[in-house]
Design brief:
Radius of gyration of chain B: 20 Å
Largest sheet of chain B: none
Structural class of chain B: mainly alpha
Shape of chain B: globular
Mean pLDDT of chain A: 86
CATH architecture of chain B: Orthogonal Bundle
CATH superfamily of chain B: ABC transporter involved in vitamin B12 uptake, BtuC
Number of helices of chain A: 15
Number of helices of chain B: 14
CATH architecture of the largest domain in chain A: 3-Layer(aba) Sandwich
Low-confidence stretches of chain B: none
Order of helices and strands of chain A: HEEEHEHEHEHHEHHEEHEHEHHHEHH
Shape of chain A: globular
CATH superfamily of the largest domain in chain A: Nitrogenase molybdenum iron protein domain
Strand content of chain A: 15-25%
Strand content of chain B: under 5%
Oligomer: heterodimer
Distance between the termini of chain B: 22 Å
Structural class of chain A: alpha/beta
Distance between the termini of chain A: 76 Å
Strand order of the largest sheet of chain A: 5-4-3-6-7
Largest sheet of chain A: 5 strands, parallel
C-alpha cells in the first residue's frame, strides 16, 4: 500500500509539473456551438463554430472595442457596448459614429442581465475573454466569437469582414477596406520612413517596459506604413524588456504609451545609457495616446493610430 | 538523537564546512553567470573590470547599473525570503509555512493594488511602503486570528490560509473592475527582479540587514521553541514574546522583498527544508545557511528566467513556482505518509 501511494504521488507531481508547462503555452480549442434557428439564414463561421442568423441583425451588442470599431466603420450603431463602465472611453472618431448606447459593463465581466434586457439579435464576443460564457451568451442571442484581445492587424481585418457578413454589409465593407488600404498607402508615402531604420512601440509602466513586436497589432500596422519594428519575431507579440535589451535594440524611434504618470522611463532617463540611444539623441521618443494605441484595434482605430504616428514622426524630424 | 550528534560532531563539522565551501562556490558561479549573461554579449574581462572600475563605456555601464544591482537584489531577496520562511515554519511549527501561504504576499499585493486604484498617480517609491503596511496588516491579522483563545500552530496556519484567500479574491476583484488602470499590476504580481536598480537596493538593504541581524539573535530561542510549546515554557522561555519578535522580523524581511520585487513565491517554502536536510534543526546553523541557500536559489532562478523568452524578460516568479510547486506537493505527500 505504501509503495502504491508513493507511485501515485510521483505520478501526481509529474502531472502537475507537465500541467504547468502545458499551461504556459495557450492553444485555442475549437468548440462546436450551434444555434438552432429558422430556414433562410446567414451562416457565420467564427472562432467557436458556426452561428445562424435568420436575418440581418438590428440590435447588436459588442463586447470588445474592435467590434465597435467594425460596426462604426459600417455606419451601424450597436445598442449595447462593454465599455468598462467608462462613458468616455471610446475614441472620438468612433464615439461620433456610435452616438448613445447602453453600457453592458466591463469587457472582462459583461453583465448578462443587462445584455438580456436589451433583447439583442446578435452578440459579438471576444475569443480570449468570453470563451467561457459563450454558452450563456448564445442562450440570450446568436453569438459570434472573434479574435480581438491580443490579436494581430490581419486577424482584425478578417474579423471586420466576418462582422460585415453577419450584418449583411459585405459590399460596403469591401469599399471601406479599399478606402482603408488607400489611406494606409498614402500615409506610407507621406512618412517615407527609411527602410534601414526601426521603430519600437511600447507600453511603459512604473516597473516595466512592454514592447510590441512585429507580430502585435501595433507592430504589424506600423509595418504596413513602412515603419519597420525593431523586434522581428513571430512567436509572441510582446516582449518584456529592461534597459539593457533596449540599448541592444537601439531603435530609431520610440513610440511610448504611458500606463501611468510616473514610469520606468523616468528612472532610465537618469542612466547615461539612455542618453546614448538613437531615439533619444534624435529627439524621437514620442508619447502617443495610450487609450487609442493600447486598447483599440480595428479599421478606424488603425487609421487614427497611423495618422498620429506619421504626424509625430514628421513633427520631430 | 542529540547525544548521537554530539559524538559525531567532528564529522559533522567537516561535513558542514564542505557544504559551506561548495555553496559559496555555487553562489559565486551563479553571480558570475548572472553578470555574464544578458542580451548583450560582454566579455568576461569587461565584466570583471566593471565590478571594480567605472570607465563610462556601454558595456561597463550595463554591468554596473543594470546587471550588478539586479544580482545584489536577488541575493538580498533570496536571503530575506528564505529566512522569513524558516522563521515562519518555526513559529507555526508547520513545515508548509511560507510567506505566501500565510497571507503575507497577498496582504502586500492587496494593499499595492488598492493603492494604485485609489491613488492612480502613486509613485513606485511610495508603493514600497504600501506593500510594507499591507504585509504588516495581514501578518498582524493572521497573528490575531491565530491567537484567539490561545495560539496554536494549527490555528495560525488556518488563519493564514483564510486571510490569503480572502485578500487574493479582493485583489482579483479590484483588478477585474479596474482593468484599464491596473495592467501595470499584472506584471508586478508575478514577481520579478529584472527592474532592480541601485535605488531599489537601497530601499531593501536596511531592512535586510536589520531583519537578518535580529534573526541571528533569535536563533537559539527558535531552536528551543522548536522542542515544543510545553518544553520551551518549562525551560523558562517567553514563547509568546519570541513568536512576536520573530513575526516582526518575518514582516520586515518578506514585506520589504515583496514591495521591491513583487510577490516571489516558494523560496520561503523550499529553502528551509533543503537547509534542514543538510544541517539539522539548530537555528544557529539554519539561519545562516538559509541566507546562503536562499541567495543561491534566487540568483540561479533569475538566470534561468532569462532564458524563457530570450533575449527578453520573464518574471522570476515563474521559475520559482515551477520548482516550488512540485516540491510543495512532495512535502505534502511526505507529511501525510509519516502520519500513517
Amino acid at each position: 500500500m505504501r509503495s502504491l501511494r508513493k507511485i501515485f504521488s510521483f505520478i501526481l507531481i509529474g502531472a502537475v509539473t507537465t500541467g504547468i508547462f502545458v499551461g504556459c503555452s495557450s492553444k485555442d480549442t475549437e468548440v462546436q456551438g450551434n444555434n438552432t434557428s429558422s430556414d433562410k439564414a446567414i451562416v457565420i463561421k467564427h472562432e467557436m463554430g458556426e452561428t445562424q442568423l435568420s436575418a440581418a441583425p438590428k440590435k447588436i451588442i459588442t463586447l470588445e472595442y474592435s467590434f465597435v470599431d467594425a460596426l462604426a466603420a459600417l455606419d451601424i450603431k450597436p445598442v449595447g457596448i462593454a465599455d468598462d463602465n467608462k462613458k468616455d472611453i471610446l475614441i472620438k472618431a468612433i464615439a461620433d459614429k456610435v452616438g448613445s448606447y447602453t453600457s453592458v459593463g466591463t469587457r472582462s465581466q459583461p453583465n448578462l442581465e443587462v445584455i438580456s434586457s436589451l433583447k439583442p439579435d446578435l452578440i459579438i464576443a471576444d475569443l480570449k475573454r468570453h470563451k467561457a460564457i459563450y454558452e450563456e451568451l448564445n442562450k440570450i442571442a446568436p453569438t459570434i466569437v472573434l479574435k480581438s484581445l491580443e490579436s494581430s492587424y490581419d486577424e482584425n481585418i478578417n474579423a471586420f469582414k466576418t462582422i460585415s457578413k453577419a450584418v449583411n454589409q459585405e459590399e460596403k465593407a469591401e469599399k471601406r477596406l479599399t478606402e482603408h488600404t488607400e489611406l494606409i498607402n498614402k500615409l506610407k508615402s507621406e512618412v517615407a520612413f527609411d527602410a534601414s531604420k526601426t521603430v519600437l512601440p511600447a507600453v511603459v509602466r512604473e516597473d516595466g517596459f512592454n514592447a510590441h513586436a512585429s507580430s502585435s497589432f501595433t507592430g504589424q500596422l506600423l509595418e504596413k506604413i513602412g515603419l519597420k519594428n525593431a523586434i522581428q519575431q513571430t512567436n509572441g507579440a510582446y516582449a518584456e524588456m529592461n534597459l539593457e535589451q533596449l540599448v541592444q535594440l537601439n531603435p530609431d524611434v520610440l513610440l511610448i504609451m504611458k500606463s501611468s504618470e510616473k514610469t520606468i522611463i523616468d528612472q532610465w532617463q537618469t542612466n547615461p545609457l539612455w542618453k546614448n540611444l538613437k531615439a533619444v539623441k534624435n529627439n524621437q521618443v514620442l508619447m502617443v495616446d495610450r487609450n487609442l494605441w493600447g486598447r483599440f484595434r480595428g479599421v478606424i482605430s488603425a487609421e487614427e493610430i497611423s495618422k498620429e504616428a506619421v504626424k509625430l514622426i514628421k513633427e520631430n524630424k | 538523537m542529540r547525544f548521537l550528534q554530539k559524538e559525531k560532531s567532528k564529522d559533522n563539522l567537516s561535513f558542514r564546512l564542505m557544504i559551506v565551501v561548495i555553496s559559496l562556490v555555487v553562489l559565486f558561479l551563479g553571480i558570475a553567470v548572472s553578470l555574464y549573461i544578458g542580451s548583450r554579449n560582454i566579455s568576461l574581462q569587461a565584466v570583471i573590470k566593471a565590478i571594480f572600475i567605472e570607465d563610462g563605456s556601454k558595456d561597463n555601464l550595463i554591468i554596473r547599473t543594470i546587471r550588478l544591482p539586479r544580482v545584489v537584489m536577488s541575493i538580498c531577496i533570496g536571503a530575506n525570503l528564505a529566512v522569513a520562511g524558516v522563521l515562519m515554519q518555526g513559529i507555526t511549527r508547520n513545515p508548509l509555512a511560507s510567506p505566501q501561504v500565510f497571507g503575507i504576499n497577498s496582504g502586500a499585493s492587496f494593499l499595492v493594488v488598492a493603492a494604485t486604484v485609489i491613488f492612480p498617480s502613486v509613485t513606485n517609491y511610495s508603493l514600497v511602503y504600501f506593500a510594507f503596511i499591507g504585509t504588516a496588516l495581514s501578518g498582524g491579522l493572521v497573528y490575531f486570528m491565530g491567537s484567539v483563545g490561545g495560539m496554536t500552530p494549527v490555528k495560525l496556519a488556518l488563519a493564514g490560509m483564510a486571510i490569503h484567500f480572502l485578500l487574493s479574491s479582493f485583489t482579483q476583484g479590484m483588478i477585474l473592475i479596474n482593468e484599464n488602470s491596473l495592467d501595470k499590476i499584472m506584471h508586478w504580481m508575478a514577481g520579478s527582479v529584472s527592474g532592480g536598480t541601485w535605488d531599489s537596493v537601497s530601499v531593501i538593504l536596511p531592512w535586510t540587514v536589520l531583519g537578518l541581524f535580529i534573526a541571528f539573535l533569535l536563533a537559539s530561542s527558535m531552536t528551543i521553541l522548536d522542542l515544543g510549546e510545553e518544553i520551551a515554557k518549562g525551560l523558562g522561555q517567553k514563547t509568546e514574546l519570541i513568536r512576536m519578535i520573530a513575526g516582526i522580523v518575518v514582516i520586515m524581511l518578506a514585506g520589504a522583498s515583496v514591495s521591491v520585487a513583487g510577490p516571489i513565491g516558494f523560496i520561503g517554502l523550499i529553502v528551509p527544508h533543503i537547509v534542514k536536510y543538510f544541517v539539522g534543526t539548530d537555528y544557529r546553523l539554519r539561519i545562516p545557511f538559509c541566507i546562503l541557500f536562499g541567495s543561491i536559489l534566487l540568483v540561479c532562478a533569475d538566470v534561468v528566467s532569462r532564458f524563457i523568452a530570450y533575449p527578453f524578460e520573464s518574471p522570476v516568479g515563474i521559475v520559482t513556482a515551477a520548482i516550488g510547486g512540485p516540491f510543495f506537493l512532495y512535502l505534502a505527500q511526505r507529511k501525510r505518509g509519516t502520519k500513517e
